[in-house]
Every structure is written in structure tokens, then in C-alpha cells.
Design a protein that fits this description.
Radius of gyration: 22 Å
Strand content: 5-15%
Strand order of the largest sheet: 6-5-7-9-8
Helix content: 40-55%
Largest sheet: 5 strands, parallel
CATH class of the largest domain: Alpha Beta
CATH architecture of the largest domain: 3-Layer(aba) Sandwich
Number of helices: 16
Order of helices and strands: HEHEHEHEHHEHEHEHEHEHEHEHEHEHH
CATH topology of the largest domain: Rossmann fold
Bound molecules: iron/sulfur cluster
Number of domains: 3
CATH superfamily of the largest domain: NadA-like
């Protein structure tokens, strides 16, 4: 195979031209339009036919062709709460990934049906902690004599049964916005935290926001006996981090930060806390998706930003703030492949099926799991 390092014009997000960023994002070639006009019209018609019976949620990382049909956009937690605040909507179409639709089902009434347009839209991070693995890990902690003083905390980006596990064992859910508050709460309840499933969010919060050291953290590998740790390591640790990560945010490296600083004088580096510790420590600003959006909103005109989060969002922010230069932190394109599974054809199928009286791809969480997951979610909601 011949790989050409192309001379195609490559466009920085927002305005201007930067041949070193955003390879392949925009191209002057003969590409078909992103959205099939016929499908756009069909989606619009089905949505109109459903009226107030339908509420469409769009996660920030979704494609533009899908986002245009969202009644509200946001991060996973905001969207689940928005769904709960719409009891009149019979159908909640969640343009996001599986764990998000589960959370929406947990927080909405039994009368409401939550639909995920493509059932294959999972989350690689959430899949890195299965219920059986976490149960086994808890037994390891029991054998080490520390389960009684350990509080499990799971990131929102986890399956419903992991949230339920945390509810059942005195723990809570957290988001990237409230991880510090959740950990403060957890350390009031116990001496140690088992943090699931994102090691980076756990480590970044513990070390950068709570004053713990890297030596206070150990990484539990579910694929190794005893998590790859000795009982002594487990007993000495304050943070037991699950060995999971986001396949999108985990791609950014410290070299990416050095590279963009060398190429773009005065650039502000803004990253999500799901990025690796060495990336976060080199960045200028760190925060959740909502934080990133607010930071760019408030940024002065003419400022330049390299953003380390999912590409659909970074592109959209570039278009929203044309008076600022917004670029992707890494040179190569990096979409969330599972988020991107929700495309216009899948959305149209969901909407047209609903309009025809047929519910497809409904996500349901069983009552027992719903109960305990809600316990963990409610503990998060009660955080100061
Ligand atoms: S961006 Fe990362 S955490 Fe979010 S859905 Fe994709 S893989 Fe999961």
C-alpha cells in the first residue's frame, strides 16, 4: 500500500490554515455531503409527527448530522437529568452511547422508553470494568482485609450494574465535574477508594486536586491474579484505580503538548481529565466537557487553543467561536468510534419506527439494578 503524505490544503478548526493540524478533517475533494438531504427531510418529518411524545438528547461528541435533531445537548449526566425533567415525553431517543441510555432509563419513569439508535454504540472505557471482574476484585479486597474500609466510586461512564455495585457497597457515582467532591465524601466514609473504571480521572483528581501522591495510588489490573498487586500494596494504597481508560482521551501524549507549544506560540492547552496524568500536568487548563465549553466561551477574541477532547466537539467549538483559533491537540484525527456509530440513517430508523408505532432498540435496566444504581446516583446528587 502506498501512503502519501499529502499536499492537500488542511484547515485548522475555526479560522486560518494550519497544515500541521487536523489532517483529513476538511478536504476540498469531491466528497459527498455529510448529510443525505433526503434523510434530513425524513428525520424532520418523523420528529414532527411525534411532537411532544419525543425528546431527543444529543451528547457533545455526536456528529453534526445527528446533533441538529437534538432537543438538548450536553454531557452524559446533564442529558440524563434533562430526560428525567421531561415526564411528558414518552420516547427518549438518546444520541450517545449505551451507558448513557442506561442512566436515562434509571432516572426516568417506567412509562418512558429510552431508545439508543444503534445498539452497537458502546463505550470502550465502560466495557473495561465488567460486573464479574468488579465482584472478583471486591473479593480480593476482602481477602486482603480492606473491603470494610474501602468505598467504591464509579465514574458516570460505567455500566448500570457497576453503578449498582457501588450503590450496594456504600459507594457513589461521580462525573468529571464533581469527582473531587465525590472523593472527599468517599474519604469521609472510609479509608480507601476503589475508583472505577477510569484510572486517569481517578489519579488526576486524587493527585492534582486532593493532595495525594502518586505513591498513594495503585492500579488494579482485572486481567492479572490479585489485580497484579500484593496484599501489602493494596493495604498501603489510598486510591485503588481500576485499569481502565478512554480510548479517545488516552491517545493524547505529553509529546503532543510539547509539539503544539513549539508550533503555535502562545497557545493555551486545554484538556479533559480523562487524559493521562503527564498530559494533564503539562496542560494549562483541565476540566470536564462543560468546563471546556465555558472556557472557550469566556476566552478573549484572538486567543489560540489546542483542545484535548473528542474531535466532533472540538470541531463544533471551532465553528462556534470563529474569533478564536481552536485546534485539536493531536495531529491525527481522533473521533470516538462508538459515539460515531449513531449516524443519520440509524436516527431516521429510530424516529420513523416510533412514528409507525414500533419501538426499536429500547434500553431497559432491570428493577433491582435500577434501585441500587439510583442509590449510588442519589448519593452523588446529595453531594455538597
Ligand atoms: S469518548 Fe471515551 S469515554 Fe466517551 S464514549 Fe467514547 S470511549 Fe467512552
Amino acid at each position: 500500500m502506498v501512503v502519501t503524505t499529502t499536499s492537500l490544503p488542511l484547515f485548522v478548526l475555526g479560522q486560518g490554515v494550519d497544515p500541521h493540524s487536523e489532517r483529513g478533517v476538511d478536504c476540498p475533494g469531491e466528497l459527498p455531503p455529510a448529510s443525505d438531504p433526503e434523510l434530513v427531510a425524513r428525520a424532520r418529518k418523523a420528529k414532527e409527527a411525534l411532537g411532544d411524545r419525543l425528546f431527543v438528547l444529543g451528547h457533545h461528541y455526536q456528529r453534526d448530522e445527528v446533533i441538529q435533531f437534538a432537543d438538548v445537548t450536553g454531557d452524559s449526566f446533564k442529558l440524563a437529568r434533562e430526560a428525567a425533567a421531561r415526564p411528558e415525553a414518552e420516547f427518549i431517543v438518546f444520541c450517545g452511547v449505551h451507558f448513557m441510555a442506561e442512566s436515562a432509563d434509571i432516572l426516568t419513569s417506567d412509562r418512558q422508553k429510552v431508545i439508543l439508535p444503534d445498539l452497537a454504540a458502546g463505550c470502550s472505557m465502560a466495557d473495561m470494568a465488567t460486573f464479574d471482574q468488579v465482584e472478583e476484585a471486591w473479593e480480593v479486597l476482602e481477602d486482603a482485609g480492606i473491603a470494610g474500609v474501602t468505598v467504591p466510586v464509579t465514574y458516570m461512564n460505567s455500566s448500570a450494574d457497576i453503578k449498582a455495585f457501588c450503590g450496594r457497597h456504600g459507594g457513589a457515582v461521580c462525573t468529571s465535574s464533581n469527582a473531587k467532591r465525590a472523593l472527599d465524601w468517599a474519604f469521609e466514609q472510609g479509608e480507601k477508594v476503589l475508583f472505577l473504571p477510569d484510572q486517569h480521572l481517578g489519579r488526576n483528581t486524587a493527585v492534582l486536586e486532593m493532595g495525594l501522591s502518586l505513591d498513594d495510588c495503585v492500579v488494579y489490573n482485572p486481567h492479572r491474579p490479585n489485580g497484579g498487586l500484593t496484599d501489602e500494596q493494596l493495604r498501603n494504597a489510598k486510591m485503588i484505580l481500576w485499569r481502565g481508560h478512554c480510548s479517545v482521551h488516552g491517545r493524547f501524549t505529553a509529546e503532543n503538548v510539547d509539539d503544539v507549544r513549539a508550533r503555535v506560540p502562545g497557545v493555551n492547552v486545554l484538556v479533559h481529565p480523562e487524559c493521562r496524568h503527564e498530559v494533564v500536568t503539562k496542560a494549562d487548563y483541565v476540566g470536564s466537557t462543560e468546563y471546556i465549553i465555558k472556557q472557550l466561551e469566556a476566552a478573549p477574541a484572538g486567543s489560540t487553543w489546542a483542545v484535548g477532547t473528542e474531535l466532533n466537539l472540538v470541531r463544533r467549538l471551532g465553528a462556534m467561536f470563529p474569533d478564536k483559533t481552536v485546534m485539536f491537540l493531536e495531529k491525527t484525527v481522533c473521533y470516538c468510534s462508538t459515539m460515531n456509530r449513531i449516524d443519520l440513517p440509524h436516527l431516521v430508523r429510530s424516529l420513523e419506527s416510533l412514528a409507525a408505532g414500533q419501538v426499536v432498540n429500547q434500553i431497559t435496566v432491570d428493577p433491582e439494578t435500577t434501585h441500587w444504581a439510583k442509590v449510588a446516583l442519589d448519593r452523588m446528587l446529595a453531594l455538597p
